[in-house]
Each structure stands twice: as structure tokens, then as C-alpha cells.
Amino acid sequence: MRAATAIGMVCAALAASAGCLRQTTFRCETDTDCGTGTCEVAGYCSFADTGCPDGRRYGELSGPIAGQCVTSEVDAGVDAPIDAPLDAPMCPTDYVVMGTSSYRLVTTLTGWAAAQADCADDGFGTHLAVAADVGEIALVDTISTASRTWLGITDVKVPATWRWVTGAVGPIVPDSITPGDCGYYFDATGGGTALVQNRTCTSLYAYLCECDLVPSDPTAF
User: Does residue 10 lie within any of the structural domains?
Assistant: First the structure.
């Protein structure tokens, strides 16, 4: 129940201000996690339903297979297309599902490079958060409890050419009012405007890891 616990911690931290997004996915590990249901091999809970051939249907928090009858074909998919291999990559279970990605907030003050390395160590498609539009920036603001949070954007390879760690360019870039090659989100604590800023990469900030199953591009940083 680590995913559910993590979501609860985020909600508790935000209850007095921004609130919490509605939980849309829950991953189980044992039948106990599902109450009266069954934890299927896909990692989601199913419940008795006489309308299904096998007598069980996935619950409403079962992500892409929510509401589907339990069959051997669906179980083999596990967060991937039905014909995908059984070892298809999945996000770490200690990441919190929010929007279309999963996240892990680290409040330990850390330099940018070490933060990116720590995120990447979590598995395939994990890296510092990519916030390429205003909606994703708002999500970072909702998740992070820190005033400054490292993001996966840098111009360390080509000055003034800001790239996300996945290799994408823009459209959101740091405002560059201060020197530095690494970007972070400032939430306007203490005054000012909430925006993406840049600072020297050895500065120590909290950081946000993201799992979107998009691999990092080493040529970007």
C-alpha cells in the first residue's frame, strides 16, 4: 500500500492550502490491500462480478484496465498493450500517480547533477521532472512543499539552449535573471512571482523525480 500511503502524505501536506488531486490509480501487492477484493497479477484490485466470464472485474482505480473483466490477456498486459512482453517497464511503486505521470518528491537539499542521477537510478524512464507546459508547472507547485525545486532542464551543453533531460526543447524555459545552467521551480515564497528560474548547478535544492517511461537523453546534459 506504499502508493496509497504516499498519496495520503501528499494530501495531508497540502490540505491547508492547495488541496490534493483525486487519486485515479491504486496498485496493490497482496489481497489484503484490496479489502473484499483480489490483488491480481497486474497489480490492481478486482472484485466479484457475475457479469464477467471469470467472475471478477477490475475496480475503478485500476488505471488503464479499470472496469474491465479479469482475463489472462489483460493480466499479461500490466500497464502496457495486451501483446506487450511480461517484463514491460513499469514505474516504481513508491512514486505517486498524478496526472499522466508518477512522481517522487525529495526534500533533501541536493545539487542538480546528483538529483538527476538519483532520479535516474529509480529505473527505466525516471528522471528529474519535465514540466513543459503551464499545466505541468501547476502540478509541480501542487506536489512540492519546497520553495525551490530542481527540474530536469539545463543549458549546460549549449549556453542559452535550454533542454529537458529527455532531450526536448522548450517551450517553458528559465527566466535567466540570475546566472546558472540548471533550472528550478520557485513558488514565490517570501514574495515575487512563481516561475521557472535558473541557478548554478551546484546550488542545493529539493528535487522532484518523474516517471513517464521516457528515457533520459545524455546528450542533453
Answer: yes
Instruction: Say yes or no to pLDDT of 166 above 50.
Output: yes
The count of other CB atoms within 10 Å of the CB of residue 138 is 14
pTM of the full structure: 0.61
Q: Which residue has the higher pLDDT, 56 or 15?
A: 56
Tens of pLDDT, residues 70-110:
874 333 333 444 444 555 678 999 999 988 899 999 999 99
Which of 77, 112, 140 represents a domain boundary (last residue)?
77
The three cell numbers of residue 192 are 515575487
Can you tell me which residue has the cell 512540492? 144
Give strand pairing partners of 185.
149, 196
117/115 Cα distance (integer angstroms): 5
> Which amino acid belongs to residue 46?
S
Range of the domain at 9: 2-77
d(CA 120, CA 55): 40
Rounded Cα–Cα distance for residues 150 and 66 (Å): 34
Rounded average pLDDT over 51-75: 77
Q: Rounded distance, CA 135 to CA 123, Å?
A: 25
- Average pLDDT score over residue span 172-193: 88
> What are residue 46's DSSP bridge partners?
38, 58
**Do both 126 and 63 map to the same domain?**
no
